Amino acid sequence: MAKRIQSSENAPEQHQSIGFLAAYSSPLPPAEQLEIYEKVYPGAAKAIFDAFTAEQKHRHEKENKETEADIASAKEVNEQENKRIKTDFYGLISGAVICILSLCVCIVLAVLKVHPATIAAIAAIPLASIIKALRGK
Question: What is the total count of domains within the chain?
């Protein structure tokens, strides 16, 4: 709000500003301020409350959608982890079965008195796989 003051006809115009600052910490203005708004613009208080209610509803809907998306993402990560664990388990069982079978073949070949180099070659493959798995990929 600016107010023009002219002291004389020859004097230049002077501008004087008057301001008002109000601060409050709640999402809605205080009741006194709502009364002033209502006097200036009838229905302003209802409009302010309606806008506040709409904003709150929008915020809650947004938060609910974000929460649902987080839950869906967590479920997907959980399913992928379960698949990985299942695959690792099947790989572990398969490797154990192959190692046991190769040891059984080595024992049978030793009983049949096959050349020791052949037995060592058959035993080396699963042994190398076990060593590689224990050392890391």
Answer: 1
